[in-house]
Amino acid sequence: MRKGSVKSHEPSADERFMRLALREAERGAREGEVPVGAVLVQNGRVLARAHNRPIHLYDPSAHAEILAMRRAARKLLNYRLEGCDLYVTIEPCAMCAGAIVQARLRRIVFGARDPKAGACGSALRVLNHCELNHQVEVSSGILATDCAGVIQEFFRTRRKHNPSIVNRAKL
Ligand SMILES: [Zn+2]
């Protein structure tokens, strides 16, 4: 886990991009989607940002990471996103981790771990599996408390409005 310098109040680049991802997650929460946000960055420039939208798009694959990668690939006119970094508030699932490998991303930075479905080593290890050729640099724990908090708050509010709802929060 990476920790910010105690002396400096300047947020690191990772923190700045994660804040943008958090803003996306909050946008998702307002739409009633499980709040996960993602930002795709190339050479310090934001190429795409997205939040979870499977409910609104009637698309089980419409996770924040997938949508951000699709947008970035269209922008670059390239299905490979080599040299690109993905910031995402929650550890990617197996589907997204698979797409991350396909896209040949350089680096993944995620906030909170997902012990039930995270595929970067928590529940499964898809990223950097020893059988895979493409290896991705992975950093975790960036603004983890905030990232997990958005999801926890989302499910807390939902339970309040509908106490019978099953808590599907992963965190
Ligand atoms: Zn996913």
Please specify the SSE layout and strand pairing:
Blueprint: H1 13-30, E1 37-42, E2 45-51, H2 54-57, H3 64-76, E3 84-90, H4 94-103, E4 107-112, E5 137-140, H5 144-161
Parallel strand pairs: 3-4, 4-5
Antiparallel strand pairs: 1-2, 1-3
The protein binds zinc ion.
What does this entry look like structurally?
- By secondary structure, this protein is an alpha/beta fold.
- The protein has 5 helices and 5 strands, in the order H-E-E-H-H-E-H-E-E-H.
- It has a 5-stranded mixed beta sheet.
- The chain starts with 12 loop residues before the first helix and ends in a 10-residue tail after the last helix.
- The mean pLDDT is 91.
- The structure holds zinc ion.
Structural class: alpha/beta
The fraction of residues in strands falls at 15-25%
Count of DSSP E strands?
5
What composes the largest sheet?
A: 5 strands, mixed
Shape: globular
Q: State Rg.
A: 15 Å
Helix fraction bin: 25-40%
What spatial order of strands do you see in the largest sheet? 2-1-3-4-5
CA distance, first residue to last residue: 18 Å
What would the keywords be for this entry?
binds zinc ion, alpha/beta, 171 residues, five-stranded mixed β-sheet, 5 helices
Briefly, what is this?
With 171 residues, the protein is of the alpha/beta class. 37% of the residues lie in helices and 18% in strands. The structure holds zinc ion.
